[in-house]
Design brief:
Layout (H helix, E strand, L loop, with lengths): L1 H7 L7 H9 L3 H21 L3 H31 L1
Helix pairs in contact: 1-4, 2-3
Amino acid sequence: MTTVAFLLHGVHEGNPLVRAALQYAPNPLGGLLAVKVLAVALGFYCWKGGRERLLNRINLLFAVIVAWNMVALIMGSIAPKLV
């Protein structure tokens, strides 16, 4: 959802893989959905393969990214009001 929020605010995607999916998909939301489906499939593969430690690290990384994105969105929305 933070990716969609960034796109709606005119911010470009920072992840090169997601950026390519958004660019080459017929619909940007379809490209984003494809990337998310791939991420869930990889998570399922890690879970079924007994790679819980790797999966936990990836989940922590994504949680940090989402938190960073939320802070950036909040700061971006209040920064023009502070000037």
